[in-house]
Predict the 3D structure of the following.
Amino acid sequence: KEAYFKDKVVWITGASSGLGKELCMQLSKLGSKLILSSRNEHALIELSKELSYTEKHLVLPLDLSESTTFDQALSLVSNRFDCIDILIQNGGVSQRGTAYESSEEVVRKIMEVNFFGNVLLTKCVLPSLRKSKGQILVISSIAGKFGFFLRSSYSASKHALHGYYESLALEEEKNGLSVTMDCPGKINTPIPKNAI
């Protein structure tokens, strides 16, 4: 396990807290070179100080709802690393509200971040991942398999990721690229505090 991750360039979205932060902590111990992304630059800087091999990592603030910034972000990554070996799509927003009460603005924001931002960043990074014959890990949710109370739009955004990435996995197999969908259940992270 350690040998596989050593010196791999891993881009992690949603890196500043919860599951993303823990992935950063574990991968840094294994010797990976990390690109730490989330909206919270201060938290990313503090996290980078805690990581093993601090000098290997790049703090790169990123808002998944701002897809027009992705090319510039990739350019910064390319200036530092030859290619990206693993993209971990962990960033996203959650929801607490009935379908009846959820406004159009809320529904669109959830889809913008969880689906469009996720997919458009992958499309941006895909040439680099093809070069490395790399891997995409998508953090979905058990809500991506079936619906839950108060999670209609969140669940829909995760369902959409499954359709997209299952198709992408079939298309990119010939290029040596692998795609993994992870569907965790309830995890004790700060995501409920930031739910829409």
